[in-house]
Every structure is written in C-alpha cells, then in structure tokens.
C-alpha cells in the first residue's frame, strides 16, 4: 500500500475546513497532520478550538481532536511537516494571495477554496471533470514562482458548479447566451440557521460579489492555454442573479440557454447521461460514478431530496424544455459545501496526485 500524503488544512476551524476534516478522516490518499487557523485558535487542541462552533451534523473526527492548532503564519514550520495544504481561510483577499503564494514558494502545493487567486493568469481554476488540461499551467507557474514542487490550484465559485457541468456537456453545439438565477444555501456564507435567524421565512436577493463570479469564472474554466496563461473564452455571454434562500445546503440554478446550433432534446439527454471526465476514467475515490443525473419527474431535482446524490459530488438536472426567448430552460442542483467547496477540492487533490503533480 502506498504511503499516505501528509496534509495541512489552513482555515481548518471554519465551515469549509470542518468539511475537509470530515472528508479526509479515512481518505485512502491523504492524512491530516496539521491544522492551521488564526491566532485566536492557535495553541488549542482542534477539539477545544471548534467544540462550541462545530457546524456539521457529523461528529468531530477522533483523528484530529488532539491536533494542536497552529497559526497559519507559521509557514516554515507547517511547510516542513506537510506534502500539500488545502486553504480555506477567511481573510482579506490580498492577505490570502500572499499567504497562498508563500506556501507555494515554500515548496508546498496549495489547493485553494478561496477566490483570491482565481484571476491570477497562471493559476488553474479547475472543475476536474471539465478542464483537467489546465493543470498543465502548473509548470509555467512553478517557473514564475521559482519552485520545484510548490504551486497553487484554485477551485471555482460554488454557485457555477451547479450549472456549468450541464452546459459543458453541450459545448459542441456552441452555447451563445446563458441566463442563470441561483438560489443558494446559507452554508455558502459559512452559516447555519442558529447563526442567522434573519434568514428564517425570508429570501435575500443579494450575495456580495456572487453575480460577477457566476458570470466571469465559467469563461476562465472554458478558456484555453496560451503563452503560459489562461485566455478566457469570449462566449457564451452569461448574465446572472444570485439569491440567498433559507435552506441549509445546496445551490439550485434556473438556467436558460441559446445555442449557435440548437440540439434536440433527445441529444441533450443522451449527452448528459453519457458525460464523464478524467475523475471517472481514473476511478478517483471522491468521483461520482454518474456525474450528471437527469430527473424525469416534473418536481425534481429538489434541494433537500437530491443535494446528496453521489455522496454530494454529483450534479442533478431536471425540467428540460424549450423556451419562448431562449432555446431551452432547465434546473440544476449541486451540494455547495461538498461538490462546490471541500469535496471539489479533495477531488482536485486526488487528480493532482494521479497526474503526478504531488511528487
């Protein structure tokens, strides 16, 4: 059996950090050896640091309870103990950029859950089933950083992972215009209902920065490599509205799309059913067996019923029909803290390992 890679989680006391801790508890590739957080948590055991703010319905894993939390700025010490880090810190973007680059320059691969480095031209923003070829940028990034092992790979915004996979399966028909409205769970803001009583019986039609991410990040995911950086796709044009709704987990998207070459409904359903990516071909531990699942029922997918499909790593689709303004409309759903955040990062790390980037 291969020796497990040693993992650090930066921001391990927050919501996404807690998800990472639970996902890595029995992982076949990775073992948590370091948890980093703010100075307020540093020096405490992980159990002491999170016992009064544990947000998941799962217990705190025994394998991390007694790990002494380190200050994330102990970069040299943490880097000496790990083979890679997951970064899920809650800090100003400028500080996140600096700290992620500092770890990379200390020869530690960084898998980032943050938006800070998503627009760095040589940082891949990866949905593993869609644009695994963007990992080739790592060699160019290493040259810029002057590293042999260290690099940064970012996970895209959680909201785009509800609908971009469904569109990606249809790219041969050249989608031209997309309108999407996302109905996003409160866990996307790092909260549970007890933290946010104002959300009960309420809908908030604004999420700061989310619409810009929803409209622009897919174009980097769909971009191509040129001169050692990503050149964004120029189409499709995307417009969005992002709305916070009173559900715990799961981002639902109402999608409208027009194509240069309009496919038939039967073709769309066939392509969704048959779509696979590199994680499925490599049989990665966190990969969903069925990436895209279409529901024939008129009232599916439903957030509460379907967000956990394929252990929260699958994408659910339903209500495909022709539209009076666009070619088609349909509904998509993804689990935002699993596929959209922590689970997506773990899947990316698995892909990096199998592709030889975590040597």
Task: Summarize the SSE layout with pairings.
Elements: E1 5-10, H1 15-23, E2 30-37, H2 46-50, H3 62-65, E3 70-71, H4 75-79, E4 84-87, H5 93-105, E5 109-112, H6 137-145, E6 151-154, H7 160-168, E7 175-184, H8 210-221, E8 224-226, E9 229-231, E10 237-244, E11 251-259, H9 265-274, H10 278-282, E12 292-295, H11 303-306, E13 315-322, E14 328-334, H12 338-354
Parallel strand pairs: 1-2, 1-4, 2-3, 4-5, 5-6, 7-10, 12-13
Antiparallel strand pairs: 7-11, 8-9, 11-14, 13-14
Protein name: Aspartate-semialdehyde dehydrogenase 2
Pfam family, one: Semialdhyde_dh
EC number: 1.2.1.11
Task: Provide structural commentary.
There is one protein chain. The chain is of the alpha/beta class. The chain folds into 2 domains: 5-157 and 342-354, Rossmann fold, CATH 3.40.50; 160-335, Dihydrodipicolinate Reductase, domain 2. The protein is 28% helix and 22% strand. It has 12 helices and 14 strands. It has helices at 15-23, 46-50, 62-65, 75-79, 93-105, 137-145, 160-168, 210-221, 265-274, 278-282, 303-306, 338-354; strands at residues 5-10, 30-37, 70-71, 84-87, 109-112, 151-154, 175-184, 224-226, 229-231, 237-244, 251-259, 292-295, 315-322, 328-334. The strands form 3 sheets. It has a 6-stranded parallel beta sheet, sandwiched between helices. Strands 10-7-11-14-13-12 form a 6-stranded mixed beta sheet. A two-stranded antiparallel sheet has the order 8-9. Helix 1 packs across helix 12. It is globular and about 60 Å long. The model has no long low-confidence stretch (mean pLDDT 97). GO terms for molecular function: aspartate-semialdehyde dehydrogenase activity; NAD binding; NADP binding; protein dimerization activity. Pfam families: Semialdhyde_dh (PF01118), Semialdhyde_dhC (PF02774). The active site is at residues 158, 251. Its EC number is 1.2.1.11. It is an enzyme of class 1 (oxidoreductase).
